[in-house]
Predict the 3D structure of the following.
Amino acid sequence: MKLSLIVAMDQRRLIGSAEGGLPWQGIKRDREHFRSYVEGKALLLGRKTFEEMESWFGSDHRPYILTRDQSYVPKISAKVAFSFDEAISLAEKERESELVVCGGAAIYERAINSADLIILTILHTTFTVQGTPKFFPDWDAKKFNEISRQEFAPSAKRDFGMSILHLKAQQVNQN
């Protein structure tokens, strides 16, 4: 099973706040890219991220929710796991071909070293948040090869550009 991470961040790796929500709103191109990539796939999300994004899910999504709350019952059909390894095992048992990690920060941190692919949107600006900022983990970009990149210039609506990269993990030579 392929493990992918999909994330949007600013130039400092800011992805959101502990209190919820994105520091940016309404970036149509990023949202369309996200929805296009995750369509019909299994998604791994932390409980808070899942609850924030619950309205985004259609019948073709298969969410796997990672939570510490042993009594958690989601409002929509989803698998619940209490550890990263359990979530991976559940997805493998369900014969998922790909599990896409959609956040939050702690799950990205746990998954980054196991990722086969990172779908990364970099917003060419910096944001601030109300509350406690959450960042994408510090990671070794040299362990990934860029397989595609799209660049978008600032627009009349946005005074910053953005890049969307697809990064594939390098194969480890096992001689």
